[in-house]
Amino acid sequence: MAKDRTPQIDYAAPLRRLLVALLVLVLFAVFLLWRIDSPRVERLRAEITDRVVPSFSWVSAPVTGLAHIVADFRSYQRIYDQNQELKRELQQMKAWKEAALQLEQENARLLDLNKVRLDPKFTHITGVVMADSGSPFRQSVLLNVGARDGVKDGWATMDGIGLVGRISGVGRETSRVILLTDTSSRVPIVIQPSGQRAILAGTNTARPLIELLDDPDSVRPGDRVFSSGDGSVFPAGILVGEVTQSTDRRLRLRLAADYERLEFLRVIRAREIEVIEDPGTLVTPPLSPVGPAALVQDQADG
Amino acid sequence: MGSAGPAYIWTMRGVFAAITVFILLAQLLPLETTPRRWVAPDLLLAFTLAWTLRRPDIVPVALVAAVFLLADFLLQRPPGLYTALVVVASEVARARHDDVRETVFAAEWFTATALITAVFLLYLIVTGIVSPIPVATGLLLMQALLTILVYPLVVGLSQAIFGIKIAAQGEVDDRGRRL
Fold first, then answer.
1. Does residue B121 fall inside a structural domain?
2. pLDDT tens string A100-139
3. I want to staple B41 with a disulfide (CB 3.0 to 4.6 A). Which of A79, B144, B146, B153 is the partner?
4. What is each CA distance from B168 to A178, A204, B11, B49, B165, in whole angstroms?
């Protein structure tokens, strides 16, 4: 109903419409830019997250703490059952501990016999989880360690037990970990004891899918899965989980890491992996530089 | 008039910004690190549409763009796309403001439903075309549905706690312009 508005508004309305159209265009341009030059915009995203999320921590820390207290309190209600269960488990663990000690000694002896030297650079930084992805479509967490602490893109992260994900997006004080359950996560794995190599693909469910398996028959549910180090993505030999079979008979993975409570994560410093670029000159004798020329001359003579 | 002066409008703009920050914060709390089979409704969108349909003067388009762009970046959505769609939707809602105050709530809800559906469908289509990773279509549709269902609740909350009412017919602001 423009007729009963004051002239001032009539003058402003088209200008406003123009500005809004411009704003929408700019927003679409940002989206296009992201589609074209994703790494740069993702770096901007890491930068923004780095600025904004740490300033939330003063409120998020107590709320998260409170939620954990509530969860702990619920577990107190079942404390008698848990106590009985723990006692039973402790009995079993004592037996296992004995076995582990013997194995450790044996392992040390064997390593000594083989003169194996473990890599001293295999160290880690521990970070605290500050935030999750905030969206049901992406699975990631934000750690409070970043470029300041020397964290780099692509490094592996694990909790105390198993692999959790890889670093993707590093700010100054924060870094994002893409979890193995995210749809964009692909990790090379090796399945023991068969030694089959495969790719672990996240599907936004609790059980990621085991893909590109050479011989599915040689893999059984319960087999243990480790990172393989193929493609120099991850250090090899980190425990990932064990194989299970879903109801649709596809091989999936039960993750070893406790995804229910990700609080402290270890970021594994990746080793500089040496790349062999030489095509093997030591094996074949070096070609003489006059070889082809001499051949041509031979033919001319003949 | 108490609900139209610049002081009131700027206060309510601050309240709106505070609500959005609170919603974002609640989503980012590291409480859910396992994949979920369900999704929460997009409260940010519900609040924005409810407030623009009822009091467009409180929610300037720049604030909408800023809030949703920040959300895009923090929640790892493709930046800009969802924001652009919501800005367009909020502009449509702004234009529908006159209709809303002349009709019943069901009509307002219908408008909101149409806008939410349009935003989610366009977002689904565009990300389906350009996104390098598969889009969780089922989850997105569930989110759209829940956002539609939560809309009356958001309106009730806005009215009860923050006093966001539809301006009555003929109500004017301090300078005598129609609201």
1. yes
2. 888 988 888 887 777 766 555 567 888 988 888 888 888 9
3. B146
4. 50, 48, 20, 19, 8
Backbone angles phi, psi at A257, to 5 degrees: -65, 150
Q: Are strands A264-268 and A239-245 parallel, antiparallel or unpaired?
A: unpaired
Query: What does the alpha-carbon distance between residue B105 and residue B113 come to, in Å, rounded to a whole number?
Result: 12
8 A C-beta contact, residue B80 and residue A30: yes
A27/B65 touch (CB, cutoff 8 Å), yes or no: yes
- B19 Cα distance to chain centroid: 11
Instruction: Give A253's strand partners.
Output: A243
Q: Is B123 a member of any domain?
A: yes
Cα A48 to Cα B74: distance, rounded to the nearest angstrom: 8
In Å, how far are A53, A169, B174 from A230, measured between CA atoms?
34, 22, 70
Residues of chain B neighbouring A181 (CB-CB closer than 8 A): 34-35
Residue B14 lies in a domain: yes
Interchain CB distance below 8 Å, A206 and B140: no
| Chain center to CA of A169 | 11
* Phi, psi dihedrals of residue A70, rounded to the nearest 5°: -60, -45
Chain B positions in Cβ-Cβ contact with residue A141 (cut-off 8 Å): 30, 33
Which of B33, B35, B61 comes nearest A205 by C-beta? B35
- Structural domain including B83 reads 6-28+39-162
How far is Cα A7 from Cα A58, in angstroms, rounded to an integer?
A: 49
Q: Examine the predicted complex and report whether its ipTM is higher than 0.95.
A: no
Ramachandran region of residue B77, left (φ > 0), alpha (ψ -120 to 50) or beta?
A: beta
How many folded domains does chain B comprise?
1
Q: Are A288 and A279 in contact (CB under 8 A)?
A: no
| Helix axes of A79-114 and A38-77: crossing angle, nearest 10 degrees | 130
What is the tens place of the pLDDT at every residue in A169-214?
899 999 999 999 998 889 999 998 888 899 999 988 889 999 888 8
From B25, B30, B69, residue closest to A132, measured CB to CB: B30
